[in-house]
Amino acid sequence: GSTIGILGGGQLGRMLAMAAAQLGYRCHVYAPEDDSVAAEVSARFTCADWHDAEALAKFAADCDVVTYEFENVPVGPLAALPQDKLAPGTRALEVAQDRVNEKRFVEELGGRPAPWRAVDDAATARAAVAEVGAPGIFKTRRDGYDGKGQWRVGADGEIPALDLPESGLVYEGFVTFDCEFSVILVRGRDGEVCFWDSARNTHEHGILARSALPAPAIVAEQVDEARALASRVAEALGYVGVMTAEFFATSQGPVFNEMAPRVHNSGHWTIEGAVTSQFENHVRAICGLPLGDTASVSDRIVMENLIGEEALAVERHLSDPAAHLHLYGKAEAREGRKMGHLTRLG
Ligand code: ATP
Ligand code: MG
Ligand code: MG
């Protein structure tokens, strides 16, 4: 098809639309916010309610393929669309937008998350901490990102005041890890799977701060097992496009954290650092084109997120000749907001 519909209007959609434009596709963005940074670089923009099935159907009718840059799109209204237009399919969203569904799905495929329990109320919260042990973390089952919707439990097992949403929480044991890494893969319509190199991901205050290659040796030792799990997940979902799985590298092997049915912040380095970026390969996959080479073009690559006011020092960022600066065009440099990133090669 020649028109790609993107559900979600953030920076991931913006970078997808830019990659799509390079390949000659037009993008239409559908998002609830009226100040979408993806809309600024795309041919058309629909600002609508996620639950407005009529608006969604009209949007999809104008597109040859519809994809997501945001995993929390409600699946109800998507069910009414021609399913062969959606890539990836709605099953991937159903699994990935609920931490309990996700953990169960991955466990059935032989993956190992941290020990966990579903939590619905104060009694199940107490039982979860007693059974899983402390320290640990309560997380909202749905809608969490950048560490939002999480409450830590210290070694004393004392339960903090929880803001319990209707969809519930999950409690998981705290994982002692050497480092974090993600497996980013692309799966084509013919089932071909390619992986990018796995960087070491460092989080600060629950937000990804940087992704760096080469990752420590422990990642190289554990990445094959992690990749095998991620490809079983992608295959079981009949997945088409880029998919990400986050892992903790531990002395017990790779522990699954969560997945994202989309391009991922920890893959932004692929824009300059790989022969084909995650964004271009997502477009290629959903449009049925041959996949591009995922090989890294340098053995030392660092992607650093620019959070809040860090993005305002534009001249300093540009003064480093090795740095590629990306700014997402967000109006307000709010604290904790991802405003852009820098990638350095070599
Ligand atoms: P994202 O923006 O990646 O979607 P999120 O809000 O879904 O983030 P998680 O990935 O679950 O949150 O957690 C954010 C970070 O908190 C992790 O990358 C990790 O550094 C830390 N963390 C989360 N769960 C655990 C755990 N069980 N044990 C140790 N650290 C954890
Ligand atoms: Mg997440
Ligand atoms: Mg995460």
From TrEMBL:
Gene3D superfamilies listed in its UniProt record: 3.40.50.20, ATP-grasp fold, A domain, ATP-grasp fold, B domain
Annotated Gene Ontology cellular component terms: cytosol
Nucleotide-binding found in the keyword field: yes
PROSITE patterns referenced in this protein's UniProt entry, alphabetically: ATP_GRASP
GO BP field: 'de novo' IMP biosynthetic process
NCBIfam families associated with the record: PRK06019.1-2 (NF004676), PRK06019.1-5 (NF004679), purK (TIGR01161)
Family: Belongs to the PurK/PurT family.
Protein name in the entry: N5-carboxyaminoimidazole ribonucleotide synthase
Record organism: Aurantiacibacter luteus
Organism placement in taxonomy: Bacteria, Pseudomonadati, Pseudomonadota, Alphaproteobacteria, Sphingomonadales
Gene: purK
